[in-house]
Each structure stands twice: as structure tokens, then as C-alpha cells.
Amino acid sequence: MERIPILKMGEYLLVTIQVDMHDQLALTLQDDLTQRIARERSRGVLIDISSLDVVDSFIGRMIANISGMARVLDAQTVVVGMQPSVAITLVELGLPLEGVHTALNVEKGMARLRQQLGTRH
Amino acid sequence: MRQLVREQAMALGFSLVDQTKLVTAASELGRNTVIYGGGGEVRLDPVIQGARRGLRLTFSDQGPGIADIERALTDGFTTGGGLGLGLGGAKRLCNEFAIESRPGQGTRVTITRWR
Asked: In this structure, what is the dihedral angle of CA atoms B6, B9, B14, B17, given to the nearest 10 degrees?
């Protein structure tokens, strides 16, 4: 089955979405990521969506779900790299992703995670 | 389907933001056609009105239809467990929006976005 790779880097999990997200793939990622957070005892999740040129309500909900599930599992999520046209469309669609932390790029996203979790390394 | 809409919109000279809005609306409506309509078809028609150019998309299915269109267009209303943003959101993302539905006979949604 097609899967989006999840990379472990210390206390963090990194996900780069580089393929067109269809619904099943999004659901699989949601499952995989929550399991990995629990197994690896991760404190932070960084999701890079810079390659996504469309985020509809389903994918948007999946992103919000992951962020919420991670929080319940004591991990912070930062979504990075959203394309400006996607941001405009999401807000107009009616899904402003409130409660989801975002950053402009991977570097800023990592800085944000470190800051939120307190610098420990 | 999303790729086809993107290519057509690009060929018609839509800006990146407008392409993205149209593709996103198409994604919402396409999902409705599959989930609620049990599958159906999408037509892509470039439209020219005077100096205006646009792209019209028609989603039709022979599914159970929508009992209360007014309610289906309300944000947050859903019978399928989603967010209930699909129809209303798609409407906001295009310039023209029309929906015809008869219970038991299916649904047709037509949207147009002008360049």
C-alpha cells in the first residue's frame, strides 16, 4: 500500500508530503503518525506541505486532526510551507485551520518546535 | 480529475490563485459525487462570453439526490460525517453556482469561474 514516509529525528517526527494527497493516503498517514508518536515517544511533529498545490476540506481536516491527536499524545505539530494560493483558498473555503501551528518553512518550523518544547539539545 | 481541471484552467490563462480555487472546488464536488451520488461524471467546458473567458464544470450523478438543498448548502451541515464545508465552500470558490437535485433521481452541480 502507498504510504507517506515518516522520518524520526531525535524527539521529532518529520513528514514531507510530496505526492498528490488522495483520501486514503491521508487517512493512512493519520494512523501511521499517531502510532509513531506513541511508539517513539515523540514530542514534536513537523509536516511539510510545500509540495501540495491543493488542500481541500478533507485534507485540511486531516491536518487539523493530526494536530489535535498529536496534542492529546503530548506532542506539538507544526505545519510548514503552505503555498500562498493554498492559504487563500483554505480561508475562503471556510477552513482557517485554527489551532494548527504553522511556519513558513522547515527551518522556522523546527525553531518553533524547539521553542515550544524548551531547548534540550 | 483535479489534474485535468488544473491543466484546463492553466491553458485558459487563469492565475495560480484562481486555478487553485477552481481545483479545490472541483475536489469538493467530485468527492460529493462519489460519496453521496455513488459516482457520476464531470464535464469540463471552456466558456467564452464577449471578452470573458471561463471554465465551467458540471458534476452529475444518478444518486439519491438532496432532500433539502438550502440545508445542504449551510456550512457545517453534513449527512456524511465530514465537515459540511463541501457545497458551501465550493460555492464560495467560484463565480457562478447552480444546483439541481431531485430525490431519487440524482444531482447536478454546475460551477463557473471566470478568469
From this structure: -30
